[in-house]
């Protein structure tokens, strides 16, 4: 992964003046894979250099930015570039002070302070000596002012005026989305000006005939290029507190394209961290964990928009894994990361501790069920996995896990999988031992077939035949030994597994043989529960009509109603309600079937339950959530509408902490649900136990659209909480976080906003609130104004400037944010220091200053492509690029 690196001669340089001399710069154009690379020097010569071969290192890395090595969540404290590319330089003496490579080499910050070099996310920091006592060298090559002609990888026809025509390098820039300092802009003598590759994907379009001086650098602070030590695989952090490795390969390089099937592979804690600055986080996103979606769009910064669970979501590309296309008989390797596998197993059979033995191992796919989950056999063991947990490994040999010496022990060793004991509202689902047992039975069958050749009637063979849907074999075995019909294999009967797998012919044979419909497995599930959990509604209806008990409660206190709504078996749900099943029964987590219907987004199930004459929609689960609270948190506007249509008085029902549904939608930025509640006349200024209104919460989280919706529907911008903080106070002092319980204000002290997008959102919210009459001079209980509680200089300065210029006329401002941008001298949306004074054409929005107007290719307000930029005097502006590594 060295192609594109900008390099200079290194510690073991042995090629004379092949590079043109000390300080001359080149580009790695090919990693030869044997500890050597090919380098194309800016002067046009090419060399093969050692990068670890024989323990020698001919090169040092001058700049790794062309590789898109990106430091997630880190900003340069000098130039304020967020999530910059290239090497990260961290001050050893100052807490949390970071520099990008250009600022470090330009001697920003204290020269007497030693720094640590962090080459890529997850790399061990290397301590540098002080810059004040370090020798400097000057880079020479293709830099602004250099004269160039077409080079090795030229593919642009006669843009340059023809072979040998010279041009002048204007500046260093980017070639393609998500990269930096991998191209230059050239002005040709024929008047053409275009951008050409200088490291982009290892390509160099130009050759230098007259070099120019570039940046000065500290030679001893550069890292020797060791291709064996470069990151080879993109991976995402699975820890909320630290990252052992981090992706710097953008989604297009990771193999994502529109139409791909992908899976969200990270647990919630890690996903929340990655979403900062990449579309943000809402509680509803947790439902996507482990689920498959389709790529709809790839953003310019690498973020991926996917269609998942009937909604579109924007994810950091590091949170996604491509789902392979698999077939029975394929050899696959299981992902080795336990946290990721646990996350991806959500709603795909769950996780059990014995799966640890399969991580990183190879196995053979023996079955693919109707949901696409795969049964993977490894020796005498087998497991059911989300296909996203599988990496195709053609030609590999399956591993043996738990191999036994004889057939009896193989079958006796069948162990049932379990799910995590802890269940949350984001992952409530019904699991059975049947799915994993099926895979194990397939393995047992292969072993039996190999060792015996001919089957003798036994309970093992009966359950195997039932699991395969072999009705004739089942009938034959029962005819030989009728007493086997109710025998169990590891707690599961033939009827239970046939019901779960949906083998109607087998179920009918077993029922005719008087199979006991009420025998339970080790978790208390009957055949009816198994059919519902297996999403086999036709079988469930057959069992109900055959007299199966419908009021079954398993070991987790889950009932047939719970199983029906979770798995969309709404016809069976109606039949069981007709047979007097209790619609308000709670499971071990306190959830009723109505809770589960909302969690499963089963709106038809919600309608059926709400219409039942005995339904009690005020029943709260163990977390204190009534169904309407859950619908509010999930942004389930359909379920909200159904419940409120029959029970309109629930619109303001409070939890024990005083949170009403409107608080919950505001905290989670659930716009659709908010509109339903507002239409139902929910009290817009409802206060919770801390006297927080929904507007307080929206402003604390930095949700612009939610804040606007609430204010436009009567929310009081001057309302005060128990500490006399107004929404503007919380906007200025808050920090976006995941929704959840706990003291909201415990998070307000000492926290810094790191996302540039969040800062911009808060500037816009504050300006909007001020335009609606919010005061910047009101004091809270601590005697502080909104500006005084703000610890982010950019945010405070931008809002102070707006308030100073526009507070007197605030009441006359237009109500929409678009009008606000076009009519008022707002702070620049990029630097937030100067006034916006450049108008974008064609949209005519004025949202940046002159200095920053070329840092955007599309308008941040309307997303239209910018064709021209006009200053306050009506003159068309010409690009004047900002700071580059020169």
UniProtKB/TrEMBL annotation:
This is RING-type E3 ubiquitin transferase. It comes from the Eukaryota. The keyword Zinc applies. Its EC number is 2.3.2.27. Residues 396-430 are annotated as: Disordered. ANK repeats lie at residues 490-522, 523-555, 556-588, 657-689, 690-722. GO terms for cellular component: cytoplasm. Its main location: cytoplasm.
């Amino acid at each position: 992964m060295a192609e594109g690196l900008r390099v200079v001669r290194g510690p073991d340089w042995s090629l004379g003046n092949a590079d043109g001399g000390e300080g001359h710069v080149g580009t790695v154009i090919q990693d030869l894979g044997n500890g050597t690379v090919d380098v194309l020097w800016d002067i046009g010569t090419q060399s093969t250099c050692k990068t670890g071969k024989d323990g020698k290192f001919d090169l040092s890395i001058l700049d790794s930015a062309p590789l898109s090595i990106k430091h997630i969540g880190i900003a340069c404290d000098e130039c304020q570039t967020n999530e910059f590319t290239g090497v990260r330089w961290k001050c050893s003496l100052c807490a949390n002070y970071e520099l990008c490579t250009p600022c470090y080499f330009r001697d920003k910050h204290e020269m007497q302070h030693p720094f640590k070099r962090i080459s890529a996310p997850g790399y061990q920091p290397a301590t540098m000596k002080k810059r004040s006592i370090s020798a400097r060298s000057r880079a020479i090559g293709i830099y602004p002012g250099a004269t160039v002609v077409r080079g090795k990888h030229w593919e642009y026809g006669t843009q340059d005026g023809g072979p040998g025509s010279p041009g002048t390098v204007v500046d260093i820039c980017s070639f393609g989305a998500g990269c930096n300092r991998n191209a230059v802009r050239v002005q040709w003598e024929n008047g053409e000006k275009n951008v050409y590759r200088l490291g982009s994907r290892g390509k160099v379009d130009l050759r230098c005939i007259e070099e120019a001086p570039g940046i000065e650098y500290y030679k001893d602070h550069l890292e020797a290029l060791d291709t064996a030590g470069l990151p080879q695989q993109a991976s995402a952090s699975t820890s909320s507190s630290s990252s052992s490795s981090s992706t710097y390969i953008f989604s297009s390089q990771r193999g994502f394209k529109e139409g791909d099937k992908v899976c969200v592979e990270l647990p919630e804690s890690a996903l929340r961290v990655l979403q900062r600055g990449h579309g943000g986080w809402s509680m509803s996103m947790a439902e996507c964990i482990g689920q498959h979606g389709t790529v709809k769009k790839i953003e310019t910064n690498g973020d991926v928009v996917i269609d998942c669970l009937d909604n579109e979501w924007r994810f950091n590309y590091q949170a996604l894994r491509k789902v392979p296309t698999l077939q029975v008989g394929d050899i696959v390797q299981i992902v080795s990361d336990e946290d990721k596998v646990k996350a991806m197993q959500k709603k795909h059979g769950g996780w059990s501790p014995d799966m640890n033995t399969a991580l990183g191992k190879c196995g053979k796919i023996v079955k693919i069920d109707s949901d696409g989950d795969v049964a993977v056999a490894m020796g005498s063991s087998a497991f059911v996995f989300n296909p996203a947990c599988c990496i195709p490994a053609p030609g590999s040999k399956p591993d043996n896990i738990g191999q036994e010496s004889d057939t009896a022990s193989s079958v006796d060793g069948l162990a049932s999988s379990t799910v995590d004991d802890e269940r949350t509202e984001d992952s409530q689902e019904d699991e059975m031992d049947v799915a994993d047992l099926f895979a194990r039975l397939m393995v047992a069958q292969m072993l039996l077939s190999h060792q015996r050749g001919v089957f003798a009637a036994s309970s093992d063979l009966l359950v195997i035949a039932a699991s395969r849907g072999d009705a004739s074999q089942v009938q034959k075995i029962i005819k030989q030994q009728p007493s086997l019909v109710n025998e169990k294999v590891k707690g599961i009967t033939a009827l239970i597994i046939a019901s779960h797998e949906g083998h109607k012919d087998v179920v009918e044979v077993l029922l005719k043989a008087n199979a006991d419909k009420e025998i339970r497995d080790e978790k208390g599930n009957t055949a009816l529960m198994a059919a519902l959990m297996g999403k086999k509604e036709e079988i469930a209806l057959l069992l109900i009509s055959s007299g199966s008990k419908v009021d079954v409660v398993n070991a987790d206190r889950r009932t047939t109603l719970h199983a029906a709504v979770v798995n969309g078996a709404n016809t069976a749900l109606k039949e069981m309600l007709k047979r007097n099943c209790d619609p308000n029964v709670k499971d071990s987590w306190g959830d009723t079937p109505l809770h589960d219907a909302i969690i499963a987004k089963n709106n038809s199930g919600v309608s059926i339950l709400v219409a039942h004459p005995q339904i009690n929609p005020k029943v709260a689960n163990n977390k204190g959530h009534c169904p309407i609270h859950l619908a509010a948190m999930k942004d389930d506007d359909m379920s909200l509408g159904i419940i409120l249509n029959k029970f309109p008085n629930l619109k303001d029902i409070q939890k024990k902490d005083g949170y009403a549904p409107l608080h919950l939608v505001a905290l989670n930025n659930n716009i659709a649900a908010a509109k339903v509640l507002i239409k139902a006349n929910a009290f817009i200024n409802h206060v919770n136990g801390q006297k927080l209104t929904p507007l307080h919460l929206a402003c604390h989280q930095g949700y612009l659209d939610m804040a606007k919706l609430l204010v436009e529907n009567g929310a009081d911008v001057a309302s005060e909480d128990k500490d006399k903080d107004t929404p503007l106070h919380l906007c200025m002092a808050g920090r976006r976080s995941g929704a959840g319980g706990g003291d909201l204000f415990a998070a307000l002290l000492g926290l810094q906003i790191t996302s540039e997008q969040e800062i911009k959102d808060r500037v816009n919210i504050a300006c909007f609130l001020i335009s609606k009459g919010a005061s910047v001079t009101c004091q809270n209980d601590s005697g502080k104004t909104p500006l005084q509680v703000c610890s982010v200089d950019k945010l405070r300065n931008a809002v102070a400037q707006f308030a100073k210029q526009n507070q007197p006329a605030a009441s006359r401002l237009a109500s929409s944010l678009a009008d606000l941008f076009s009519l008022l001298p707002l702070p620049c949306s990029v630097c937030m220091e100067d006034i916006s004074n450049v108008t974008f054409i064609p949209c005519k929005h004025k949202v940046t200053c002159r200095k920053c107007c070329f840092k955007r290719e599309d308008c941040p307000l309307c997303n239209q492509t910018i064709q021209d930029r006009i200053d306050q005097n009506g003159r068309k502006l010409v690009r004047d690029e900002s700071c580059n590594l020169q």
